[in-house]
Amino acid sequence: MEVYYIIGFVIVYIVGITTGMYAASQVEKKIEKRIKRDVHIPRYISVSYIEQAPQWFYGMYLYSSKNTGHYKKFSDIKEANIVLEAMGCDIKLPEYFYKNDGEKKLQIIKTKFNKANHGECVFDYDDCMDIS
User: Fold this and answer.
1) Per-residue confidence of the chain (132 residues) as pLDDT tens digits?
2) CA distance 31 to 127
3) Residue 42: phi, psi to the nearest 5?
4) Which of 13, 54, 62, 91 sits CB 3.0–4.6 Å from 42 for a disulfide?
5) Residue 46: phi, psi to the nearest 5?
């Protein structure tokens, strides 16, 4: 009789472990799906400089497509440079549009970035007027 209790315990133990492992794997799959759904991959990046003197960096905007509103804005040029670096462009954004060949640097960044990303993500820049 004692052997049956041991065998029963072993069976219950194995079934419990198997059930726990299955439940854990299902939770992990749900978390992975949620993370993948929430991650945005930019398809269009726009960098703006304020038109008024001294034409400094205003922000980087990330878009899911060119025809939608931006889903993320970086006002700090250091953060914007990290985004560019992560996307394969090692040239830093200039702080000013017209000073120190800023516009030429932006054109170089645009060319290098768009070539590195093969049209998967497009980079562009502008100088805009801040009306606030």
Assistant:
1) 677 777 877 787 787 777 767 766 766 666 555 544 445 678 899 999 887 767 788 899 999 877 788 888 898 999 999 888 888 888 899 988 878 888 899 999 999 888 888 888 889 988 876 665
2) 41
3) -65, 140
4) 62
5) -120, 135
